[in-house]
Amino acid sequence: MPRDSIRSLVMSAEKDAVKRFISHMHQSWDQLHVETSQELQAMETMTAAFIHKFPRVTPELFVDLSQFIPFMSVSDIMSFPGASRGVVSKSPPSSHAVDPPVLPLRLTAIRDHSSEMKSPQKKAFVKRLLQSSVVGDVPTWPPYFLSSILPLLPYLPVSHFHQLTSQQVKALHEQLINGSFVSFFSDLYLSLANKVICRLGVLACYMDPAELGSYLQDSAVSSALWQQLSRCISKGLIDANGRVRVKVLTEVVSSLQAQFLFRKILDFKNITMKTLRDLGHIAGGMSCEFFRLWINDTDFTDLLQLVSELPAGARPALVRNELHRPSNGSSLAEGKIDGTLLDILGALLPFLDRDSLALVDRGALALRLEDMRSFCLPKEALRDIAVPVPSCADIRGTFPSAWTSAQLRRMSAEELKACVEVLGQDLALSSEQRRSLWVKLRQSLGPVRELRADQVLALGSVLTEMGDKELQDANLTHPGVLAHLGTLTGWTPQKMRAVTSGVMRKRRLKVEQLTAVDLATFGHLICGLNPSEIKRLSPYNLSVAVLFLRDMSLPCSEQQMEALTSRLSRPEAFGPVSAWGPEIFSEIGTLAAGLPDIVLSALLPEQVEGISPEAVALMPPRKMAVVLSAVQLSWLSPEQAWAVTGPQWAELDAEQRHAVGLARYEGDVLLELRGVSRASCLWGELRLLSCE
């Protein structure tokens, strides 16, 4: 299937159907064989679509998705599993959420699939891991954690290696000698060699080429070495025909390195065509200004040929063939320059005239804008092509959220109206994108009070950008409409209030009259009721509705959550919390996060057992730190412990963090805190010492 068709199929299918398909692939994985580049691209496209399809990942779904780890792009890895309630991160929350047990599962999956992964993928996973505040400082990493990330250790930044203690290195040595990672120590040695490189000075100019090559390939060491080698070149200390010079010219591994060296050489000597040929890969570091200076030079054709032969360079012969074959079915013959031809043109795009630029397919160009930014495009060309306006077909062929709010604003009303349903289903749209869409659509939809139920459903997440008065005026009383709105997560407290008050006013209902069906239908919108109104809800009806609310991350305030749990502890509902068993805590799900401080501080082990990981993650950070003791935290299951978020962790004291750490690695430690006095244990060096 074409890649766009794969994306469209996955995004348009029902989520349950996609889950079953992923599960079927997981069970039939041994029968799948990815052999051709086309099949590889299909798997990569499918993997990206799956990740985009499920902004929330359960442990069960992650197990099925883990088979796709070798096909994840670096951008997929950096956004999945996202920083969320379940995976602690110092970075802002992404759009992807992941259930609490997924982080240990992720480490296991990475270890299992490490042999199939490429270095960039492992480096990306390392970056994702180091964003997590729960891993703490390197000297505090216990042996069982180091063991779990063993395949990733060679890709840790050198600054982290410097922090390893002698005890940690000794523990690693024992694991590595007994395992299949003996070569790891050579990587560690190279990483630590950074300090030595800095002290070598001009002696680096005379290094053995074989040693030089290994250092240049190591990202942790190469930065300092490149700077020193540029000085060698600029000072003429490298023999023009020597092996070191050949190694330098062929080992350039990034455009930044090439640009850095080219600037240094340009300062040292005039660049001729012969010089450019001699520079090898470093010639790829020439600036746009330098490139344009050669346009009228007699050697410009030779320069184009040289550029085309560089890594990822354009191939002029192919360009000429494609541009001059109007009778052979090329896209140019059809009056447009499509994605295939854009890829062939590559860096030669700036040399198209304005009439040819007008033929560029805007949708194909939008998918390549990041690459275009690195080309030497004149400002007038940027003005002509930088903001392509998508059509409805473009929107359907891509993810709506892939287009900027400015591009969406420029779409015609007719094109937008034809794509409303597709746009409304994309939950990855930002607030700014949704706002741009609503401002544009409002002009063609007419008064909001006249919107039909099917139109409201089609608008989907775009509805969250309606104004407060518009939400009150719109007829949102249809159960199907209200249930759909209750699943959306982009609401502000004021807009949730506008929806619930508008619905109750139109139905002439008081809070006390809301049935269990009404409350279940509200979903997230139940947070549109203020605490005083929540305290007037029927306890029995709320206890029935909680079966539908318990899996939601309700965007309620702390006061609203406490009001909800106070109603559930009424005799007409579940009775006093002191009499609740684990089954009641399981039944109320995330609402357990709203239990009052005095109740949480008195929880028993069997009651803690029933609290869902999602409820743990929703507890206000300061509340968790003040109310739950280290002993209570030690009663958490691994799944519950991994649900502790970054802000929560930051509020915990040393004993509480110790307890959570023990709970996370249950079975991998020598001593657990359960049932032991808070003062009876000490955490020493890299092991646990128990007190008899």
From TrEMBL:
Pfam families: Stereocilin. Residues 1-250 form the Stereocilin LRR domain. GO terms for biological process: cell-matrix adhesion. Keywords: Glycoprotein, Signal. The keyword Signal applies. GO terms for cellular component: cell surface; kinocilium; stereocilium tip. The keyword Signal applies. This is Stereocilin LRR domain-containing protein. It comes from Kryptolebias marmoratus (Mangrove killifish).
